[in-house]
Amino acid sequence: MLEINSVAKKAIVWYLVLQAFIIQGGSIESGDVSFSIRLRNEMYGLKRPRVVYRCKSSEKSLRWHQSYKKTEFTWDFEVPPFGNGVVIHQCHFMSSQGTADVIIKTLSMTSILCGGHVCKYVIRPNGIYFVGYETYYPHNFFLRFVELVRPVVKLVEPWKAWSPRQLKELRAERNRTRSEEDREYEDEKEEHD
């Protein structure tokens, strides 16, 4: 009689465990995973801390943005679930320090490294940084098969200095794009001086 009760108890426990898995399995959505990328300007200690940047992916292209010290810009996008798709953003940055081209690859599993569904990047005087987490394996013999996570602020791309040719082209373009009213104003100003 005691064996029958223990078999019945085991059957009830297994039934409840299976029900929990079935209920959780039915609640998994098959839609895409929402992500955001946040860019923050931390160009401290510079006369001209302004940064101009543009990011684009295969699905959409964001317009050019001007970023001043302590400002942030965030945009949202969707990533296919379960790590079977990648969203790649190509970002081009320009500042008084030079230019930088950054490629940001996002998978649904990236949320572990971003500390959630917002991946943070920081613009600093020496380059573009990723602020989040990285995985590592301890050197301890007993823990060598365990993957751990630690916080990191990692330089993704340093600034490339402006070449003389680029500077000449930028100045020529700036002079070409000035309106006629701006030129007249400057001519009048020169006449008065």
Write the layout of secondary structure elements.
Elements: H1 2-26, E1 33-41, E2 51-56, E3 65-67, E4 72-79, E5 87-95, E6 98-106, H2 111-114, E7 118-124, E8 127-136, E9 148-158, H3 164-177, H4 180-192
Explain the overall architecture.
This protein is an alpha+beta fold and 193 residues long. Helices cover 29% and strands 37% of the residues. The chain has helices spanning 2-26, 111-114, 164-177, 180-192; strands spanning 33-41, 51-56, 65-67, 72-79, 87-95, 98-106, 118-124, 127-136, 148-158. Strands 4-1-7-8-9 form a five-stranded mixed β-sheet. Strands 3-2-5-6 form a four-stranded antiparallel β-sheet, with no helix packed on it. The longest helix has 25 residues, at 2-26. Residues 23-28 have low confidence and may be disordered.
Quick structural summary:
The protein has 193 residues and is an alpha+beta fold. The protein has helices at 2-26, 111-114, 164-177, 180-192, and strands at 33-41, 51-56, 65-67, 72-79, 87-95, 98-106, 118-124, 127-136, 148-158.
Question: Which features characterize this protein?
Answer:
4 helices; alpha+beta; 193 residues; 9 strands; 4-stranded antiparallel sheet; single chain; 5-stranded mixed sheet; elongated
Number of helices: 4
**How many β-strands, per DSSP?**
9
Q: Helices and strands: which structural class? A: alpha+beta
Distance separating the two termini: 111 Å
State mean pLDDT (0 to 100 scale). Answer: 79
Strand content: 35-45%
What percent of residues adopt helix (DSSP H or I)? 25-40%
Helix-strand string: HEEEEEEHEEEHH
Largest sheet: 5 strands, mixed
Strand order of the largest sheet: 4-1-7-8-9
Q: What is the C-alpha radius of gyration, as a whole number of Å?
A: 27 Å
The stretches of 5 or more residues where confidence is low (pLDDT under 50) are 23-28
Overall geometry: elongated
